[in-house]
Design brief:
alpha/beta, Rossmann fold, five-stranded parallel beta sheet, binds adenosine-5'-diphosphate, three-stranded antiparallel beta sheet, binds deoxycytidine diphosphate, 15% strand
Amino acid sequence: MNSMIPVLTIDGPSGSGKGTISRLVAARLGWHFLDSGALYRAVGVAAGWEDVDLADPDALQRLAERTVVGFRDSPDGEPRVLVDGVDATDELRTETAGAAASAIAANPGVRAVLVERQRAFRRAPGLVADGRDMGTVIFPDAPYKVFLTAGAEERARRRHKQLSEKGLEVTLDSLLREILARDARDAQRSVAPLKPAEDAVTVDSTGVPIDAVVERVLSLLPDSLRQASPAR
Ligand SMILES: Nc1ncnc2c1ncn2[C@@H]1O[C@H](COP(=O)(O)OP(=O)(O)O)[C@@H](O)[C@H]1O
Ligand SMILES: Nc1ccn([C@H]2C[C@H](O)[C@@H](COP(=O)(O)OP(=O)(O)O)O2)c(=O)n1
């Protein structure tokens, strides 16, 4: 039965390290990985391509229904994301796509379309799921839940470094403003707001190196699960 397959949820605000930590933990465990934000970002990018009005909830829901998102492994460990068959990985990682995703994600119709698609990622031997509502809405029965945080200035610095390394020039100030605006919108929306699940363990990664965060998260799982087996 699907509910027998273990899930580790990692929710938190932008730049807290969810994607990085989730991928590393999934690799250590030999589990699958769900980047749920990529699904919302893909609808945002598709809206730009098809000129769909972000303020039209029905049009957005229909767009979410027909947008096909695929993930393909890549040698650098960061999976490529295909939107309707087109590799849109670089476009998806921009702050413009993040802001569009955050706006779209407040739409209950869009969220409803994506629920079952996200649950389909739960496959043996296990799943690490990264997002905003993984522990609260999508996998409420997950046995392991983390709420990953870090101070807003540090998150903005991390994002700034990440984008600069990709050759994208954005000022630190504008990134901090965008991150704070996105935090507020994601936490204040009425449907599936960003908040820790009641049974989540909060991990503050401010000033904590990536490998130490990975170990902290892995320490929440029993030894028996920490024996890596290849993901299928
Ligand atoms: N604990 C950490 N310390 C320093 N940098 C980190 C840490 N965790 C993540 N990062 C870096 O911060 C950036 C944003 O991380 P990411 O995983 O994309 O966050 P999120 O998925 O929560 O938005 C990446 O460049 C990543 O390497
Ligand atoms: N499970 C999720 C995942 C993302 N979202 C929305 C809200 C976020 O601001 C955007 C983008 O999410 P994503 O995780 O890709 O963004 P960050 O990497 O944290 O900056 O999508 C959501 O509402 N629910």
